């Protein structure tokens, strides 16, 4: 397979197991999914042979998830994002924030970066909850309506072209991706200090899992749901 001339998002869409390879190379496959792999390899001075070998091995191995999101219909992709990812952020996000604040208060003197980590996560969660409301009350209902009755969808939109709210959502995705890259940088890739207490350890593991889930969430929207929704909306006109 000619990986170098493919967009990163398309590679991950074909086989989600490759997301772990890109994460290991610090390659953004969700917000940066529209970039050609050859461009990223050149920018980051990556050994392309080793990277391609790792991607090929990932393709041969069982994926981390049993789901092949690319094969799902658009409606099921939206259902999964809203009923799994959105619900999980609303349920688990505030609990993790309390933990981050607790750890920062207790250990911030020894590890001052924890105060910034808590601030970054607080800002991320607040903005994500606002982001989810916009998707759940404006964008996704329109996509459902478009799937149920194409003709009715023509006159139901309050935002003109569907590309406008999608561009806003993608911009907000970029902001959250940047925040979590900063969190990962501050924590040296979620490295747990040897003297860390149990709360500190749990916080780091949960932050890392939150970021991994966010990557999958954004990847499905940016590289599958949004392009297909735009394609279908254009077919109505």
TrEMBL record:
Gene encoding the protein: ric
GO cellular component terms given for this protein: cytoplasm
Transmembrane parts of this sequence: none
Main location: cytoplasm
The UniProt record lists the keyword Lipoprotein: no
The name this protein goes by in its record: Iron-sulfur cluster repair di-iron protein
Domain Hemerythrin-like: 83-228
Pfam families (UniProt xref): Hemerythrin (PF01814), ScdA_N (PF04405)
Cellular location(s): Cytoplasm
GO molecular function per UniProt: metal ion binding
Presence of keyword Metal-binding: yes
Keyword tags: Cytoplasm, Iron, Metal-binding
């Amino acid at each position: 397979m000619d990986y170098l001339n493919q967009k990163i998002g398309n590679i991950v869409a074909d086989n989600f197991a490759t997301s772990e390879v890109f994460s290991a190379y610090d390659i953004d496959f969700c917000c940066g999914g529209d970039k050609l792999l050859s461009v990223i390899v050149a920018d980051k001075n990556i050994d392309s042979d080793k990277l391609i070998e790792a991607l090929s091995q990932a393709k041969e191995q069982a994926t981390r998830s049993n789901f092949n999101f690319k094969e799902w219909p658009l409606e099921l992709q939206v259902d999964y994002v809203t009923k799994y990812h959105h619900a999980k952020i609303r349920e688990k996000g505030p609990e993790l924030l309390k933990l981050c604040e607790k750890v920062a208060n207790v250990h911030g003197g020894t590890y001052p970066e924890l105060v910034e980590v808590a601030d970054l996560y607080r800002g991320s969660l607040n903005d994500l909850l606002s982001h989810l409301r916009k998707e759940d009350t404006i964008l996704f209902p329109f996509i459902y309506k478009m799937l149920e009755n194409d003709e009715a969808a023509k006159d139901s939109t309050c935002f003109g072209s569907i590309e406008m709210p999608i561009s806003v959502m993608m911009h907000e995705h970029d902001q959250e991706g940047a925040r979590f890259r900063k969190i990962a940088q501050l924590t040296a890739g979620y490295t747990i200090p040897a003297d860390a207490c149990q709360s500190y350890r749990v916080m780091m593991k949960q932050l890392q899992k939150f970021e991994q889930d966010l990557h999958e969430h954004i990847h499905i929207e940016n590289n599958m749901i949004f392009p297909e929704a735009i394609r279908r909306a254009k077919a109505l006109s």
